[in-house]
Structure formats: C-alpha cells, structure tokens
Write a structure and sequence with these properties.
2 domains; 3 helices; 25% helix; 118 residues
Length: 118
C-alpha cells in the first residue's frame, strides 16, 4: 500500500456492504476520485485530511445507465482492467458456499458453465 500512495487517478469501489474506505484514500493522486458504485447505506466515516491535502473527492452512483456501463466496460478493456475471479466447477458450489460463509474468499467465484453436465 505504501508504494502505491498517490498512484491512482481513480478508484472504483464496488463493495456492496459497509466498509472502511480510509486505507484507500491516500492511494489517490492529487485531484483523484474515489467512486463508490452500488453501495447503498452507511460507510465508516472517512478521514478528511487525505481528501483536503490531496484535493481528492468521493463520488457515487447507484449503478449508472446502459451508456455509463458501456463506457466503463470500454475503459476496462482499453486499460486491460480485469476482475480477480476464482473459477470453480459446478460440483464445487457447496464448498464455495461454505468458504463464503467462513469469509475464506479472496476473489469472486465464477462457475465454469462448461462443467455443467448436460
């Protein structure tokens, strides 16, 4: 985290539950934006010093429309921004659910539909 300070113009936060954004604010460069997308509800209180000292801002959107979604997908494709996923087979769903309940998930699970028996 220390080596990434002031390294991002934009951070897109898609975590849908209450969480602490303070560790990420110093990662924004001067005039950077921390965009919260889809999180409805409370967040931990942000510390204002990183915002004021770096002229950083927090913005938000419930989800955006089709046009905005397409722009985001185009941007990600252009910049090679890919999601971190753990591919699982269909027969591993039970284990994946147990891991989710134990908070033992680092990435999003994606089911390999090729493993679905016809």
């Amino acid at each position: 985290m220390a080596s990434a300070q002031n390294g991002f113009d934009l951070i897109i936060d898609t975590v849908p539950v209450k969480h602490d954004i303070n560790p990420y604010l110093p990662l924004l460069d001067v005039d950077g934006t921390y965009a919260i997308v889809g999180q409805v509800g409370l967040l931990d209180e942000p510390h204002t010093a990183p915002l004021l000292m770096g002229r950083r801002r927090i913005s938000g959107s419930l989800i955006g429309g089709i046009k905005e979604t397409q722009e985001m997908l185009d941007f990600c494709a252009e910049k090679s921004i890919l999601p971190d996923c753990e591919m699982i087979r269909m027969d591993e769903i039970g284990e994946a659910f147990e891991r989710m309940e134990k908070s033992d998930v680092r990435y999003r699970f994606v089911i390999d539909m090729g493993s679905l028996k016809a």
